[in-house]
């Protein structure tokens, strides 16, 4: 295990200053007082690990991350439990996915125990920033960037920096849980086979902004990505995975598109693949076309749709728009959607038992 140097801020924010932020934190707008940094180069490997005061990074204008986009990130949350302890939800899965992304982006792997230790140190140092309010959490953002200076494009960087920052955050979609509207993007593609769709790299999100702007211009909250070849098969919503609910009551079942290299393998998605069958709701991974989505809603076979992810948790989808027209699924979150959300959030916040070992103490 790499040793961390600890450098704490000279003056922490007062309780009053902190509470003013926690009362209305937004999402990813205000940051805690410390951060983690670790350096890597070919000669030393991972070294110079520090918990340090939050502040700007000094980088040369020719640093490779600015020119070739060699970077990636993760996103997870810390939750305060009823007894005051601070935990995270499946951080080991984030550590594994971080390294899978590193492999795809030709970046060095970070030992998983170091990834977890970095979260523990930051959460312990800034534990007072973990909200107590229902639905709020401390959002953790580990990331890695190429820091070698030079314009050579024939090889990946020989130097990197790993960093973790944290932000107290409210729900990703503000207000009460309510269905979002989505726009079917026919003109833009998020990922193609052999690309970086399964990696959590910033380029995927930068390329998505124009389609998200189009969705907003069409009066929708989010964009739904379709496959690159035919623009027919549903893949995911924004940066979230999609689930389709067929039937109702004891006959309800879930369908979600398979992750075949173009879809981010979400940790919330994977959790629901395990959790839903335990609740008596079968799950299958199947391709869903736009035509099938529309026709199954019209026939009543498809009863609910929801998106899931670390930031959005489980969010119902109510209305679908595209160049061919629009259709409505529901005006409120359906019973299957809300039951899964209640169970998952209950585990995260310590109100439900955790038979899966998903909860890890951080502070």
Automatic annotation (TrEMBL):
Family matches, as PROSITE patterns:
AA_TRANSFER_CLASS_4 (PS00770)
Q: Which UniProt keywords apply?
A: Amino-acid biosynthesis, Aminotransferase, Branched-chain amino acid biosynthesis, Pyridoxal phosphate, Transferase
Q: Which InterPro entries match?
A: Aminotrans_IV (IPR001544), Aminotrans_IV_CS (IPR018300), Aminotransferase-like (IPR036038), B_amino_transII (IPR005786), BCAT-like_C (IPR043132), BCAT-like_N (IPR043131), BCAT_family (IPR033939)
User: What high-level taxonomic lineage is stated for the organism?
Assistant: Bacteria, Bacillati, Actinomycetota, Actinomycetes, Streptosporangiales
**Catalysed reaction per UniProt?**
L-isoleucine + 2-oxoglutarate = (S)-3-methyl-2-oxopentanoate + L-glutamate; L-valine + 2-oxoglutarate = 3-methyl-2-oxobutanoate + L-glutamate; L-leucine + 2-oxoglutarate = 4-methyl-2-oxopentanoate + L-glutamate
- In which domain of life is the source organism classified? Bacteria
According to UniProt, the name of this protein is Branched-chain-amino-acid aminotransferase
- Pathway of action: Amino-acid biosynthesis; L-leucine biosynthesis; L-leucine from 3-methyl-2-oxobutanoate: step 4/4; Amino-acid biosynthesis; L-valine biosynthesis; L-valine from pyruvate: step 4/4; Amino-acid biosynthesis; L-isoleucine biosynthesis; L-isoleucine from 2-oxobutanoate: step 4/4
Q: One Pfam family this chain carries?
A: Aminotran_4
What is the required cofactor set for this protein? pyridoxal 5'-phosphate
**Does the record carry Amino-acid biosynthesis as a key word?**
yes
What Enzyme Commission number(s) appear in the record?
A: 2.6.1.42
Q: Does the keyword Amino-acid biosynthesis apply?
A: yes
What's a single GO MF annotation on this record?
A: transaminase activity
Q: Which family is annotated? A: Belongs to the class-IV pyridoxal-phosphate-dependent aminotransferase family.
